[in-house]
Amino acid sequence: MNPLPTLTDIEAAAQVVYRDFQPTPQYRWALLGQRLGAEVWLKHENHTPVGAFKIRGGLTYFDQLRLRGQLPGHVISATRGNHGQSIGWAARAHGVRCTIVVPHGNSTEKNAAMRALGVELVEHGADFQASREHAMALAAQSGAHMVPSFHPDLLRGVSTYWWELMCAAPHLDVVYVPIGQGSGACSAIAAKLALGRTLDVVGVVSAHATTYADSIAAGRVMEAPVSTQLADGMACRVADQAALDILRPHLARVVQVTDAEVANAMRALFTDTHNVAEGAGAAALAAALQERQHQPHAQAGRCVGLALTGGNVDASVFADVLRH
């Protein structure tokens, strides 16, 4: 199976996605432009029905199962929140039982959102990788279908938001995309290739969860400890080999952002656009701001695309970020 969707695949996936919601907006925000010294377009994936881009992948994953006549009675997956909401939303639409494993101490509000979708929530492990391994064991024991965090059928749907942005702003020179398990960044690459664009795709990882940065540099999967307290959507301990195979040859570069830089970007997004961003959702801006600081004129005259990939941050966490 070709891991990257073609333009035909992406256009077909968009029709699946649009059964549930319309294309999300992308706006050229003047204050963000002033902040970065460039023309800036912000893609609002925080405006989907689950507040994050992941829903697109869940919808196309289940649609592909349906088309193949393989819809299961029960699915299991692991998440820090947004992937779980995506799978919960799509499972509910198809009448499929859904169990999601999250680590202990996961976002209270993301957990509540998943339960509201009918998800059976299981708390296990100290981080996402431990939850993922437990989910795989549960699926093997029960015979349920294990939904991975990275899969070509997920990429079909996720690619639609980058396709929307690149069609709306065809003159983009560079896009910044956070890397959790890799579906967002790989989908940006897929849309770029499908549309024949020459823009740079810059991957963004947490400086406190560096498996993808380390793995890309080493050319093989390198496990790395996770200590981020803010960017839970990027809190990955072990990179996915299939994602790595796509990212290594196609990313222009990888930028590492600290929790402090992410918090600053969350405040900037609220100040400049009055949108709430979770940690991973602000990582793209954090990376662009870091590069602006190191090279003040590097983005002058360029068109920059940023993905606000999600807005699902606990109220207490966001209040603390704004206070400081």
Question: Your description of this structure?
Answer:
With 324 residues, the chain is α/β, with parallel strands linked by helices. The protein folds into two domains: 7-53 and 152-323, Rossmann fold (3-Layer(aba) Sandwich), CATH 3.40.50; 54-146, 3-Layer(aba) Sandwich (Rossmann fold), CATH 3.40.50.1100. It contains 13 helices and ten strands. It has helices at 7-17, 30-36, 54-67, 82-93, 108-116, 128-142, 152-168, 183-195, 211-218, 241-250, 259-273, 279-294, 315-323, and strands at residues 26-28, 39-44, 74-78, 97-102, 120-123, 145-146, 174-178, 200-206, 253-257, 303-308. The strands form two sheets. A six-stranded mixed beta sheet has the order 1-2-10-7-8-9, sandwiched between helices. A four-stranded parallel beta sheet has the order 5-4-3-6, sandwiched between helices. Helix 3 (54-67) packs parallel to helix 4, helix 3 crosses helix 7 and helix 7 (152-168) packs across helix 8 (183-195). It is globular.
SSE topology:
Blueprint: H1 7-17, E1 26-28, H2 30-36, E2 39-44, H3 54-67, E3 74-78, H4 82-93, E4 97-102, H5 108-116, E5 120-123, H6 128-142, E6 145-146, H7 152-168, E7 174-178, H8 183-195, E8 200-206, H9 211-218, H10 241-250, E9 253-257, H11 259-273, H12 279-294, E10 303-308, H13 315-323
Parallel strand pairs: 2-10, 3-4, 3-6, 4-5, 7-8, 7-10, 8-9
Antiparallel strand pairs: 1-2
Helix pairs in contact: 1-7, 3-4, 3-7, 7-8, 8-10, 11-12
